[in-house]
């Protein structure tokens, strides 16, 4: 799972989980709690996980080094 800054498009935190034996890793559904500070996921291994942003991150520890692409792609 990755947490992105929606204004800049920068991925500032990546989180990994280990799927339970005999299951594939995947997310069926996700939603934020009422405070919008935690993300709740329902995963394919029949677990519910609660994620939160790392409270110790700062612009110095996770600098934005992302530059937008000016090229337009036609699909």
Question: Could you explain how this protein is built, in words?
Answer:
This protein has 75 residues and is mostly beta strands. It has a domain at 22-55. 0% of the residues lie in helices and 35% in strands. It is built from no helices and five strands. The protein has strands at residues 2-5, 10-14, 27-32, 38-43, 48-52. 1% of the residues are buried. This is 6787_t:CDS:1. One of its GO terms (cellular component) is precatalytic spliceosome. Residues 53-75 are annotated as: Disordered.
**Rg value:** 16 Å
Main-sheet strand order equals 3-4-5
**Helix share bin:** under 10%
The geometry reads as: extended
- Put simply, the count of helices is 0
Strands, count: 5
**By helix and strand content, what is the structural category?**
mainly beta
The biggest sheet amounts to:
3 strands, antiparallel
Beta-strand share of residues: 25-35%
Order of helices and strands: EEEEE
Determine the N-to-C terminus distance: 26 Å
The chain-level mean pLDDT equals 78
Which consecutive residue ranges, at least 5 long each, have pLDDT under 50?
Answer: none
């Amino acid at each position: 799972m990755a947490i992105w800054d929606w204004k800049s498009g920068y991925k500032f935190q990546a989180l990994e989980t280990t799927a339970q034996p005999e299951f594939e890793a995947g997310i069926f559904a996700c939603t934020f709690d009422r405070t919008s500070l935690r993300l709740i996921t329902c995963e394919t291994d029949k677990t519910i996980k609660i994620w939160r942003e790392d409270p110790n991150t700062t612009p110095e520890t996770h600098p934005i080094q992302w530059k937008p692409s000016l090229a337009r792609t036609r699909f």
